[in-house]
Design goal:
five-stranded parallel sheet; about 50% helix; DNA Cyclobutane Dipyrimidine Photolyase, subunit A, domain 3; 3 domains; binds iron/sulfur cluster; about 5% strand; 21 helices; Serine Threonine Protein Phosphatase 5, Tetratricopeptide repeat; mainly alpha; binds ligand DLZ; binds flavin-adenine dinucleotide; single chain; about 500 residues; Rossmann fold
């Protein structure tokens, strides 16, 4: 009798994955497939593809070393049908399988397809819950039930209590749930930021880099100096180095941006959490332990834990609760195309240029670059959420729809009308100037409000509020800002609109 076939996707590289726990090494087969459909349904960044293929190939080797049979289909294999479904059909025939075990995927699109496989394949298909997350979708749905708006802060408190993280009995350690008042310092240009943890490509990675250069030549992004972790041991080393070297200053400089310094005091573990090489619980526990031993202060540790136990689980909860309609939300009716410079970096706005160039080189930008520079511009300029979502899904090596979509449509673009965020994260140039050194080397003048030399974020900010008054005017958190707008003279409003029209017309 043939054993069970167990399909492992590129973002399921965890030995503790639900579909691997009961594997029978004597008869079962693990199936892993590199397929063009996943590479091109959006044309992912070259570095992201290379990272994932190398991590998949290393994971397959590790399973084999354990005595597990792995059927690994390479992108260039002659009969590769190019899709999950096509490769599953071939594998079922190859192995004479009567049973296929899966773990639920990270994207609604793939889950829908998997649900049809039972009928299409005529064999028993079992889809298991992904137990690697700390908040199962049902628990999130219970928490969200009856709430008109969802607020991460309240969800996060529940998670702290549930997992007893940074708690003293029923109270948060230190008496506060959130220490952001001590975080978010402006950048200190004399900082000696530690170098990122990086690994020289081995034979497997070198082969993959050649494959990606060859097959994905017209995709966005660079492959030079590839240094991602591609095994669990390497990913654990990234986490260890973060805890040892960066965590103590994580909170303080969480929002700071310095030209040519992409990595700052962030952890750079999103790539590994999202493909399964690291688990969220172990990152949370490592950070908590650093506080217990006195290695890192509470403001840093709490801030870091909130990102993983709070934000990461929160956005995933929203994704599964609201899909598929969430992907179509466009509350502000934004219709503009994506400016070409999001791909080329050719713009005189230095903050945008720095963030895009770095994204092209590393498939990475930290949260504030994604939110307050690249996202803020897309919001102010009124770019259609479909294009913005596609761009973010393509360009970051940690991007999968479950985490990318709520961040972009909910947090950045307010496309869900305020379900995830209580107000749009819109800001003028002063915020970027306060949190970075970008403005000192820009063709535009951040202190100027009007005219050709003025920072575009300054007039676009007000233009955005004027344009969307019918949708945002009643938002209590924007009341003061709209009152300031009301005090502006008609001439000033006309000037803002003229500057904005002139600038937006240049975007094509
Ligand atoms: P750190 O700053 O060190 O944070 C630690 C971890 O916390 C991250 O690795 C991540 O797992 C988690 N985290 C932090 N913020 C968030 C958040 N808002 N949502 C979910 N998890 C969070 N994160 C992704 O993992 N994939 C994405 O596709 C993605 N797209 C984003 C798009 C936009 C517009 C914005 C504003 C944010 C996005 N984020 C995304 C969240 C965040 O920017 C990244 O998780 C973070 O920059 C990854 O770098 P890091 O590992 O150094 O994170
Ligand atoms: C992102 C990605 C890419 C580029 N290629 C593959 C692949 O060839 N095989 C695979 O199993 N997974 C790949 N992935 C990750 C999938 O897109 C991801 O598993 C689904 O989107 C579900 O989250
Ligand atoms: Fe960006 Fe404006 Fe500063 Fe230039 S002046 S870097 S456009 S915020």
């Amino acid at each position: 009798m043939s054993g069970t076939l167990r399909l492992i996707l590129g973002d399921q590289l965890s030995r503790s994955l639900a579909s691997l726990t009961d594997i029978n090494k004597a008869v079962d087969t693990v199936l892993m497939v590199e397929v063009m459909e996943e590479v091109t349904y959006v044309r992912h960044h070259k570095r992201k593809i290379a990272f994932l293929f190398s991590a998949m190939r290393h994971f397959a080797e590790e399973l084999r070393a354990e005595g597990i049979t792995v059927d690994y289909v390479h992108l260039d294999d002659a009969d590769n049908r190019g899709s999950f479904a096509g490769e599953v059909v071939r594998a079922v025939a190859r192995h004479g399988s009567q049973r296929l075990v899966l773990t639920e995927p990270g994207e609604h699109r793939v889950l829908q397809a998997m649900r049809d496989w039972q009928d299409e394949l005529g064999i028993d298909v079992e889809i298991r819950t992904d137990t690697r997350f700390m908040c199962p979708p049902e628990m999130f749905a219970d928490w969200a039930d009856g709430r008109k708006q969802l607020r991460m802060d309240f969800f996060y408190r529940e998670m702290r209590r549930k997992y007893n993280i940074l708690m003293e009995g029923k109270e948060p350690v230190g008496g506060k749930w959130n220490y952001d008042a001590e975080n978010r310092e402006s950048p200190d240009l004399s900082l000696q930021v530690p170098a990122p943890t990086s690994f020289a490509p081995d034979t497997i990675t070198t082969e993959v880099l050649t494959l990606v250069e060859d097959r994905c030549a017209n995709h966005f992004g660079d492959l030079a100096d590839f240094g991602f972790a591609v095994t669990r041991d390497q990913a654990l080393a990234v986490l260890d180095h973060f805890i040892a070297e960066r965590l103590p200053l994580f909170g303080t400089y969480q929002d700071a941006m310095i030209a040519d310094e992409p990595w700052m005091y962030h952890s750079h573990i999103g790539f590994y959490l999202n493909c399964g090489l690291l688990l969220p619980a172990e990152a949370v526990q490592a950070a908590e332990a650093a506080w217990v031993t006195g290695h890192a202060p509470l403001n840093a540790v709490e801030g870091f834990i909130r990102q993983i136990l709070g934000w990461r689980e929160f956005v995933r909860g929203i994704y599964w609760l609201k899909m598929p309609s969430y992907a179509d939300r466009n509350f502000l009716g934004a219709e503009r195309g994506l400016p070409e410079f999001y791909w080329t970096g050719e713009t005189a706005m230095n903050c945008m240029k720095q963030s895009i160039d770095q994204t092209r080189r590393y498939a990475y930008a930290h949260h504030i670059q994604r939110l307050m520079v690249l996202g803020n511009f897309a919001l102010l300029a009124g770019i259609d959420p479909r294009y913005v979502n596609e761009w973010y899904l393509v360009v970051y090596a940690d991007a999968y729809e479950w985490v990318e979509l709520p961040n972009v449509s909910g947090m950045v673009l307010f496309a869900d009308g305020g379900y995830l965020a209580s107000k749009p994260y819109a800001a003028g140039g002063a915020y970027i100037n306060r949190m970075s050194n970008y403005c000192s080397n820009c063709r535009y003048k951040v202190a100027k409000k009007a005219g050709d030399e003025a920072c575009p974020f300054n007039y676009l900010y007000w233009d955005f509020l004027i344009r969307n008054r019918d949708k945002l005017g009643n938002n209590a958190r924007l009341g003061m800002i709209y009152r300031s707008l009301d005090k502006m003279s008609d001439d000033r409003v006309a000037e803002i609109q003229a500057d904005s029209s002139r600038f937006l017309a240049t975007l094509g």
